[in-house]
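Schema walk-through. Below, the input block comes first and the output block second. Nothing else is stored per chain. Lengths vary across the set, and this one has 337 residues.
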Amino acid sequence: MSIQLFVIFSICSALHVITSSTLPSPELHMKYGGQALNALQRLLQFFEMDAKDLNLDGLYGLRIAQGQLNALHNTLTSSSNENTHLTDVHNHIQLLSNQIERIANKSLTEIARKTSAYLQRFTLVASKPFLIDYEIRKVKPHLIESGERISDFDEDVSDACFAELLGSSNDSNSSQCFVTQSCWKLMTSVNSADYRLTHQLLWFLIAKNIGCIDHRPISDLASKSLKQLEDRYCSNIYQDAQTNLIENENQDLFLEQVLLCSMIGYEEFLRFDWFNTILTWQDPEDGCFNGKSDTMETSIKTKRHLLIEQEMTDGCLSHKSGLASGVLAVYARALLQ
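--- output ---
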């Protein structure tokens, strides 16, 4: 039995400028925003030199970065831009976005040659900039779940649910936005942790991005609003991220946790101590993100995240570096717009 994912979720259609007192003064906005862009520029230089080894999962992080850069460029160049002390007269932001497009085109050509079936499954989210509505909000401690958390993650089942949502599953009747109740149950289940939890959030963000969510009712399964689900997911992700970073358990997971919640407006994830820590993970020579500073040793061949990791030149990691590009772009947009 399938249900169509046109849900009566409340969607904020406008992209907001951050004015919260959570973030520091305009001078610090510019300082840290500039650092984020400089780090991103170094990372993109690496990607451009080794685009052939960038896999689809790393590319997805770059597409998120590109969406953030495009939104920032549009804000800074808009005639209604109230932030008159900060403009982009030399189109530096747009040039970075253009660079990502070049990297993506090179990568997609190589991916199509090596794994065309895999590309066909996920091309809808890897073929263009990924942008989601940004609404300033706060994590809600009362939504943090108690008891045993489930981190078991079956990548094949997860991949199948994403493909089902995208209309690219192996089912002959596959249609975009139609999902089985088993996938709905998996993606809305409680007491999840780690990659299982971030993938639940990601699944709904992709649903929103590709237009599966509007204001039509479908079933009692969809009685909760997307905003309520996002509040639950990100409140629990924030707690997990704090523990993860303190124990330095998994930098890749931490970047995924920060990226997915910060890009939809949860300001607590835009911490400056976290930003400074992330910058220390960037390789000073290559500009990429590798596993040298990560205490968790896991086989690259079996390690699965947004989808899968791949080693690039000099031990640089495709998925981890892709996530980092998205995180740096979110910081830049939040601080400079």
